[in-house]
Amino acid sequence: MSLVLHDWELSADAYRARLALGMLDLPYTKVPVDVVPGRETDTPAFRALSPTGAMPVLVEGDLVLSEIGAILIHLAERHDPAGTWLPREPARRARCLDRLLFALGSLRACDAARDAALFETPSRIADPLAEARAALRVLESLLARRALAGEAFLAGEEPTIADLAAFPAAALAVDWGEDLALLPKTRLWTRRVRALPGFTTMPGVPEFL
Amino acid sequence: MTRDLEPAVRDAWHVLCRSADLAPGAATRLRLLSRDVEVARNAAGTVSARLLDGEAVATREAYGHVFACLGTPAAPLFDIAEFAEDDRRLATCGAVRVRASGLRLVENFLDMAHFPFVHTDLLGVEERPEVPRYDIEIRRDVDEVWATNCRFWQPRAAASSAEGQMSEYLYRVAGPFAVMLYKTCPADPSRFDVIGLLIRPAEPDLSYAYAFVLVLDEASSETAIVHFQQTIFLQDRIVLENQRPRLLPLAPNAETPTRADMSSVAYRRWLKEKGVRYGTVEGLAGHGEAEGVP
């Protein structure tokens, strides 16, 4: 079944999907969506694919997914026979989902801070900058605890979709003026993610972090 | 009140917004040259603007954008002749906010030496970093800075590129905050694509960049063309936001140019001759709101 990604180069969520597709070595077709300045995500045609206007949208046969969490979980469950990106063993799986929901929950403030810095996109978050900085400190602390346990990634020894969900929030922080200088574990972890086979970059991800 | 602005900036045309962002009956407030400006379009489609403290300001609508002049226009809005060629397609990329002087944005746009390192595998490759010698002149009759006979090897010069090409470039600084380039069109090497960067200087160290592309490209979708330019500009933006000082120094010994920076040297000299201070280190005392100067 062919995979189609309704994509915007500059979207952090679209980057999360592209990272997963790349790491899983899946061929896919990109359909560019004119989010800025065209606001194509508000058009009836796009809303037919994505009722809330969320993007990216992944289409695989009859399946149309517009929530990034569902896209990452689906790609791992459907296309990762080894089951490393979303572990099957219940405790490891639960930990992966715990970190995934953090990455797509509190840590999402980083996306809001970035959208405000680039395009002055309004946010439901009252103070995106403060919340983004606070969430990055939580990420640092999570990674520090994993490091003490001898583990390199957010949910254990191996990378999971939780790492892919969290990576853009940290790696694109320079877009809103945060340089990660005081977050050494986060910087080390971004280097590990960058070194994974199938990694793809995007504009805004610093060459040297 | 615009008396404190130097004539070279006050009497020049500056972009305010995209035409498409101002629907009939709509009005919006924008920051231009440290002033609040309200720009509106009436039901008949005519655009007008005024300073929030009252005075009307001159406006023009052209090239897919709305322009304003806060003083008395020193000249008509610069002419971009290629807009009269009806086989071209215009794509406007919208506004991107950048914490840097607008003059820094123009200077970065003029620079070819960064292509292999900032736009790796698009506008340059690290194996071919050389900037061949080019010509630079200040054209007194039109009061513009031109760089001509520029050449650079580009693996993916435009959204429509199928393969690498030796791109030929002409750069044209049409105003202190308006710059264009003309570059070999991948689809028709006998003609040039036009790429423009129009900057709305909101504060001396805060800018909004409006890029447009006027191309001969029947194959790419408008969205693909916009995404290509946005990708390039976001790569530049990281560099621009990290330059210090955020303001452009015009003193000749402030930063050390190389031969590849001839266009930057000419641009700075031209700005200095015209008496431009807004967005410069030298203008800091006059405008007061800037930060980030060591």
From TrEMBL, chain A:
Residues 89-209 form the GST C-terminal domain. Residues 1-83 form the GST N-terminal domain. It comes from the Bacteria. SUPFAM superfamilies: GST C-terminal domain-like, Thioredoxin-like. Coiled coil: none annotated. InterPro entries: Glutathione-S-Trfase_C-like (IPR010987), Glutathione-S-Trfase_C_sf (IPR036282), Glutathione_S-Trfase (IPR040079), Glutathione_S-Trfase_N (IPR004045), Thioredoxin-like_sf (IPR036249). PROSITE patterns: GST_CTER, GST_NTER. PANTHER family: GLUTATHIONE S-TRANSFERASE-RELATED, HYPOTHETICAL GLUTATHIONE S-TRANSFERASE LIKE PROTEIN. This is Gst12 glutathione-S-transferase. It comes from Salinarimonas ramus. The lineage of its organism: Bacteria, Pseudomonadati, Pseudomonadota, Alphaproteobacteria, Hyphomicrobiales.
TrEMBL record, chain B:
One of its GO terms (molecular function) is oxidoreductase activity. InterPro entries: Cholesterol_7-desaturase, Rieske_2Fe-2S_sf, VanA_C_cat. It comes from the Bacteria. It holds the Pfam family VanA_C. Gene3D superfamilies: Naphthalene 1,2-dioxygenase Alpha Subunit, Chain A, domain 1 (3.90.380.10). Keywords: Oxidoreductase. Signal peptide: none annotated. Residues 99-273 form the Vanillate O-demethylase oxygenase-like C-terminal catalytic domain. SUPFAM superfamilies: Bet v1-like, ISP domain. This is (2Fe-2S)-binding protein. It comes from Salinarimonas ramus.
